[in-house]
Amino acid sequence: GQQLNQSPQSMFIQEGEDVSMNCTSSSIFNTWLWYKQDPGEGPVLLIALYKAGELTSNGRLTAQFGITRKDSFLNISASIPSDVGIYFCAGQMYVNNDMRFGAGTRLTVKP
Amino acid sequence: DSGVTQTPKHLITATGQRVTLRCSPRSGDLSVYWYQQSLDQGLQFLIQYYNGEERAKGNILERFSAQQFPDLHSELNLSSLELGDSALYFCASSLQDRPTGELFFGEGSRLTVL
Q1: Which of B15, B27, B33, B35 has the fewest CB atoms in 10 Å of its CB?
Q2: Does B35 touch chain A (CB under 8 A)?
Q3: A82 CA to chain B: closest CA distance, Å?
Q4: Run of H or E including B95
Q5: Which chain B residues are within 8 Å of A90, Cβ to Cβ?
Q6: How many residue pairs bridge chain A and chain B with CB atoms within 8 Å of each other?
Q7: How does pLDDT run across B14-32, given as a tens digit for each residue?
Q8: How far apart are CA A87 and CA A101, in angstroms?
Q9: How far apart (Å, rounded) are the C-alpha atoms in residues A79 and A61?
Q10: Which residue does chain A place closest to B101, by CA atoms?
Q11: DSSP state of B26
Q12: Over the stretch A17-65, which tens digit does the pLDDT of each residue have?
């Protein structure tokens, strides 16, 4: 199936540092999304990308839809303690109805 | 609050048993998705329903089944439970048949099989 490979699995950073994580696939996706899951909660959408090459920002978050449609990255600038959580990439293909998720990047921010 | 309601929040049962997880989608949403999240794992897509009809199937075991009712709530039935079925089960909803954008997730049902 259209497996999404997300890296890194986990990150331990100091408050104020920038963070970068990415997602790749052997399949082409028409939509890439990035979700964040806080402990005890369901994932919440951070950024949605709909066009190849698209670069979108949401506050300190920036994400890009790769030109090949097979990858995406998420950057978080000037991290703060509340950025702690699990970040998931997700991709959706028009030929399927489902949305597939990466394994997640667990982010820890040390004050 | 995403508007998606899942019950129960926690469930502890024994191997071989059967449980039913319930999901009420966001008001107006016609699609319901079920995902399984095992410890330190990503979200594994199980199944999707749109307006009462099954639309997509992922890695759902034959021991598991689901349905969406006329009032659009959905139930995920897990039978002949095994220890490995212990996980968080999430329901998500969206307005359209194809998830062209955001899925709204519930808080999950945590199943523990002893």
Answers
A1: B27
A2: yes
A3: 18
A4: none
A5: 103
A6: 67
A7: 999 999 999 999 999 999 9
A8: 10
A9: 10
A10: A48
A11: P
A12: 999 999 999 888 889 999 999 988 899 999 999 999 999 999 999 999 9
